[in-house]
Amino acid sequence: MAITVNEGKIFTINTKNTMYQMYVNEEGVLFHSYYGAKIGYSDLSYLSYKRNWIAAFSPNPRGKDYSHNQTKDELSVFGNGDFRLTALSLVNHDGTTACEPVYYSHQILNGKYSLEGLPAFYGDEGETLVITLKDKAYDIYFHMYYGVFSEYDLITKALVIENKTDKQIKLNKALSLTLDLSKGTYDIIHFHGAHARERMYERTRITHLKSTVSSNRGASSHLQNPFVIVCDKDANEEHGNAYGVGLVYSGNFVISAERDQYDLTRVVAGINPEGFEFTIEPNDSFTTPEVALVYSNEGFGKLSNCYHKAVRNNLCRGKFKNARRPVLINNWEGTYFDFNADKLVNMARDASKIGVELFVMDDGWFGHRDDDFTSLGDWFVNEEKLQGTLENLVKRINAEGLDFGIWFEPECISEDSVLYREHPDYCFKIPNRDPQMSRNQLVLDMSRKEVRDNIYNQMVKVLNSANITYVKWDFNRNLCDLYSVELPRERQGEIYHRYMLGVYELLERITSSFPDILFESCSGGGGRFDLGMLYYMPQVWTSDNSDAIDRLKIQYGTSFAYPVRTMGAHVSVCPNHGNARVTPLSTRGNVAYFGTYGLELDITKMTEEEKEEVKRQIVEFKQYYDLIQYGDYYRLLSPYTPDESRYCAWEVVKEDKSEALVCTVAYEAKCTVPPETLKVRGLDPDKFYRINGSSEAYLGGALMNGGFWLDYDHVSYASRLYHITQI
Known about the structure:
Shape: globular
Structural class: alpha+beta
Number of helices: 13
C-alpha cells in the first residue's frame, strides 16, 4: 500500500522514491510533517513546529503551544492568525471570515479519484487518500483528495469544499495546495514569455518577498506557465532537491512562494483569487483544480521524466494517447487566407509524394472569411472559396493519399457574423460600454449552456459532413470585459472559472463524440500549453514561432514538465516569416523531430532538392519515432549558456538503456574554434556502445563522464544527430 495511517492519525504517502507525511494533533488540526526522499516509516510530526516556542506577534489558540503563523498547516486559512500565504478565504453567512478546519474522517480508496467537471490524472493503478476536515462552528466540510502514482513519484492534490449549512457561503480564495518546506535556501524556476516567445526559463531566489507566477487573462500560459520548480539553490539537472508544482488547469491561476520571517518557505497554488468569488449554495460544493507534485533528489532531469511518463500514460486520453501521430502539413504559413480548393489539392499532391500523411486546412474556410475581421462563430463552409462542398474537397485530398484535418476557433466570435447578429448577448460585453477588441474578435460566454450547444451543434454538422481525422482547436485572444447576462450582480466574480468549466464541458462532449479524431490545442500557439488541456487534446501547437533557433529555448522550457509527444513542432520556410532568420533545412527538421514533426509551408514552392531532403527527414523521423517519443529525455546543453558552449544539445534514451539519440544545434559559425566534447546521460555505465554505426566502441561510463567529440560544421545553425547503440 502506498498510503498508510496509524492509530495516532499519522498519514504517510509513499511512492517509489518519495515520502509525504501529515498528522492530526490533539486539537484535530492537520499539520504537514515532511515531503522528500523516502526514508522508511518514521513519525516525523516533530518537524511540524517547535513545541513550546511562540514568537512575538504570532497569535496562538488559547492555552496551546503553537501558532498557525509558525506551523505547517496542510490547509492554510486566512484569518486564523496565519499571516503568510494562505490557500483558503471564505465568508460565512453571518459575514464572519473565520474558519477552523479540524479532522473529521478519512478513507483510502483503490484507484485514482476523479473531479467532476475538471481534468485530472486518472488510473486504476493509482491510490486515493481522502481526509475530511470540518469547521468547528459551521457544517462546512473540506474534503482533501490525495492521488498517488508510485511508479512516477507523482502525488496529486485537490480540495472539495462542501456547504451543509442552510445558508450561502462565499469563497474569496480557494487554492489547491499549501506546501511548507523544510528550512533552507530555495530557488524558483518558472517559464515566462509572450506570444511567439513562450516558456522562457528563468531562475530566481525565493526571498522574503513573495515570488508569484500567475495569469489573470482567462488563459494559462503565454506570459507564465502553471508549472514551477522549487529547488535547492545549487540544484541542477542531475543533483539536488527539486519540487515540481503543476496545475491541471487552463484558466486564471497563481503559484506563489514566500520565505517567511522565520526563514521557512511556503508554496501555494490554485485558481487566481484576483477577480474571483464563488458562492456555494446550501448542500452544494466547490471543487478546486488538481495540482500535481513530483519530488526528486536527483535534480531536474529525473523530475521531468516523472512528469513525462505520468502525462503520457495517465493524463492524455483516447486513441492517440500512445498511437503514432501522423506527419502533417498545415497550410497557414503557406497561404494564410489566400487559398481555394485547387491550391490546397496541389499542395496535398506534392506533400503526398514525399510521405506526408495528413493535410490540415487552417483558418479561412468558413463564413465569408478572407481576413481576421469576420465570420468567427459561423461554422459553415464557404463553398465559393472551396469551389464546392467540404465533402468534395476532402475526397480530393483523400484521393491524393492524405487524411484531412480542419481548424476551428470555437470560443470566439466576430461582430461581422450571422451568429453575432442573431445573438449579440452570446459574447462577453459590459452593458453601456464599447468592448475591448483583440484580433478583431470577441469571446463567447462559454459559461452558458445555450452558447456551448450552439457551437457544438455547428461543429458536429461540419465534422459529420466529411472524412475529417484531425481538428486544430485555437483560441486567439484573452478575456476581458467580463459580464454574463445569466448571472446576478453578486455572482459576476464566478465568470472566469465558470468559463473554464464550460470550455472543459464542450471539449469533453466534442472529443467523446468523435473519438477517432486527433485534437490539437492551440492558443495563438502556446498560450494554453498546460496539463488541463492535455487531458482533452494530447498535443499542443507549442508556439506560433516556428523558427528552429527560437524553438531551442521554447522547447527547452516546455520540456521541464511536458513530454516531447505533446509538442507540435513543424518545419517552416526560410527566411522565417517571424524573424527572417535563415536556418539549414536539416536543422529545422532535427528540431521538429523532438515534437510531433510536420510542415508549415507551401510545399509547391520548394525546390526538388528541398523536397528530397524533407522526404528523407520523414523516413528518419519514423525510424526514430518510438525512441524519441517514449525515451527518457535529458537536457544536455542549455540554449541559455552560449558562452559555455557553441551548442545546444539534448538526448533521448530508451528505457532499457540499449539505444539513445542525441541532437546538437550549433549557433553562429566562428573561425578557429577548438573541437568540443559532449557528455551524455542515461546509459549503462558497464556496457559498450557505438555512435552512428562506427566501428569504435565506447564504454557507457566513458560517454557519460568523459564524453565524445562533436563534429563541427562551418555553417551557422548546423545540427547533427548522434545515434548511440549498445553493442
